[in-house]
Amino acid sequence: MAGETFTYKATDALGNSVTSSIVIRIVDDVPKAVDAARSITPGQVDTNLLLVIDISGSMADKSGVRGLSRLELAKEAIGALLDKYDDMGDVKVKIVTFATGASDRSEVWVTVDQAKALIKDLSPGGSTYYDSAVNVAQDAYKTAGKLEGAQSVSYFFSDGAPTSGHALTDTRTAGWENFLDQNGIKSYAIGLGSGVNAGNLNPAAYDGSTHTDTNSVVVTDLAQLGNVLSGTVQGAPITGSLMSGGDFGADGGFIKALLIDGTTYTFDPKGLSNQGSYAASGAPTAACSTPLPTASRSRPAWAARWWWTWTTASSPTRHPRTVAATRSKPSSSSPATTTAT
Q: According to the UniProt record, where is the region Disordered (predicted)?
C-alpha cells in the first residue's frame, strides 16, 4: 500500500546525529457490516376528541363534490377522521353543534360508534353563532367520561361568517384560549368552502398544548377535505437506531435510504442548503410475500412494526418491507456512506 515518506534527523546531546526516513501509510477504516434486526412498535395514543360543528342553514348548500351538501360531505370526512384517531388508540368524543345557539349532543363523552350515530342525525338550519359554540364547547368538555392521560384535540368546523354580534371578539377569544391552555387542548379551525373568511375563523384556532397561536385552515376545494383532516392526525413519533453494536467510523456517515412498506425514502445531505432533505419514491409492491407483524389493535399500514436489517454489499436483498441498510466506503478519499437495498 502506497504511503508518504518523511525524512528526519535525530541529534543527541553530544551533537551526534543520524538521518533516516519513515513511511507513513494512512489506512482508512472499513466498516464491518453484520446482520441485525431492529423492531419498533408504535405506542398507543389515546385521544379525547371535541368536535364543534356548524349546522347553520348554509350547510345545506351544495359542496360541489358528488352532489353532496356541505354538511353531508362534512359528515363523511369527520367519520373518516374518527377512524384515524381510533386507529391510534382509545378515543372518546364530545359533539357540540351550533347554529342559532349551540347544543351539547350527549350528556357524557361517547365512543366513536356512538359519535358517528349522533353525527348521522344532524340536519342544517339556523344562523351561525360562534360565541355560543365556544361557550357550550367549554361546558361540554367538563362532562364525565373523558379518558385519563389522553391527548385532547378540538375541531371547529364552519362554512361561513358568524351572525352579526356573535363573532369571536377579543374578549371571547381570550376566554377560549384560556380554556384550551388550562386543559392542554389543541384546537383546529376548519373552514368549509370558499365563502369562509379566515379572519373570522382564526380565533378558534389555538394550540393549548404548547400555548401557541395558530391559524385556521380554509378548504376551498371541498374534495380535499378528507386529506386535510387526515393530515392533522398526529401519532407518537417512532424512534430507533440502526447503529447498535457498530459505528460509522472516523469519517462519519448517514443512512442514505430506508425502504418502508414499499416506499423508499432517500436522504440527500446536501439538500436544503446542506441542511439535509429526503425524497419519497415508489409504491407498495406485491413482491412482499411475508407481511410484518402488526400491533394487537387494528392499525393502519404506517403502524406496522418496522424492521431494519444490516446487510453487506454482497448480501441478498431482503423482502421489500425490510429496511436493508448497507454501509459502504467506495474509496479512502470518499466519505463513508450508508445505502439501502
A: 315-341
The amino acid occupying position 267 is: F
pLDDT at 267: 84
* Number of independent structural domains in the chain: 2
Handedness of CA 164, 165, 170, 172 (dihedral sign): negative
CB 232 within 8 A of CB 313: no
The boundaries of the domain holding residue 106 are 47-230
* 124 and 247 fall within a common domain: no
For residue range 238-288, what is the model confidence (pLDDT) as tens digits?
Answer: 666 666 666 666 566 667 777 776 788 888 888 888 888 888 887 654 333
* Region of residue 262 (phi > 0: left; psi between -120 and 50: alpha; otherwise: beta): left
Residue 242 confidence (pLDDT)? 63
d(CA 145, CA 134): 20
Q: How far apart are CA 306 and CA 236, in angstroms?
A: 14
**Strands 62-65 and 17-24: what pairing?**
unpaired
Asked whether the whole model's pTM tops 0.70, one would answer no
**Start-end of H helices in 36-94:** 70-88
Q: Which CATH number do you get for residue 79?
A: 3.40.50.410
Contact 223, 74 (CB under 8 A): no
